[in-house]
Amino acid sequence: MARAASWWQVLGVLAAITAGCATTETQTIVPLPPPATTNAAAQATRLAWLPFEPGAGRDLTRATNERLAHVVVDAATETTQAPVSMEMAQLAIECIEHTPACWSAVGHSLGADLLLWAELERPAHGPGVTLRVALFDVGAGTLVKNATRPFPNAKAARAGAVSLIDGTFGVPTASAGPPP
Questions:
Q1: Are 164 and 133 in contact (CB under 8 A)?
Q2: pTM exceeds 0.85
Q3: Residue 135: which H helix or E strand, with range?
Q4: Which of 88, 90, 103, 110 is nearest to 136 (CA)?
């Protein structure tokens, strides 16, 4: 008889569980967020390179942009070309100063963690130009690499653009091809 009592007890417990689970309320399933990763390498670091301003001359623009497109930055996990030059990006966000705050604003507007660009500076008086290349960390608000080189004119800057970029960021991979 003890065995029969246990059987009825088990059936009673099962009936109580079944009755407790039966409900007319709708249940909402809330998805759990993805697990947090502790591996810093798992987070993408996006490098946006901004094309050289076309007003500097066709040959200088082409040579500079070809080299910028092949710069490899170890910290970057993905690289993309921005749709506009640094000057145009700054005009678009109405922040035209050459300051870390403006460069950070450009980086945020492009969704980039790192910015890479080149620019040609012409003195207010006298001949010559200065070619500048820069790598900027948007989150830290600091220049990671920055190099400038004066040239007597834009034609000389075209001849020295490749060596300035290669010297600043290292020689590009073999897939970049020979210097133009």
A1: yes
A2: no
A3: strand 129-137
A4: 103
Asked whether residue 44 carries a pLDDT value surpassing 90, the answer given is no
Please report, for the chain, the start and end positions of each structural domain, with discontinuous segments joined by +: 44-171
Instruction: Please give the Cα distance from 115 to 137 (Å, whole number).
Output: 7
What distance in Å separates the CA atoms of residue 136 and residue 76, rounded to the nearest whole number?
12
Q: Could you give the 3-state DSSP secondary structure of residue 104?
A: helix
Q: What is the pLDDT of residue 172?
A: 54
- Identify the CATH class of 44-171: alpha beta
- DSSP label at residue 84: S
pLDDT band at 156; cut points 50, 70, 90: very high
Amino acid at 154: A
How many angstroms separate the CA atoms of 95 and 105, rounded? 8
The burial class, CB within 10 Å (0-12 / 13-18 / 19+), for 52 is buried
C-alpha span between 79 and 84 (Å, rounded): 15
Cα distances (angstroms) measured from residue 26 to each of 15, 22, 29, 169: 22, 11, 10, 60
Residue 157 pLDDT > 70: yes
Phi, psi of 76, deg, nearest 5? -85, 135
pLDDT at 15 over 60: no
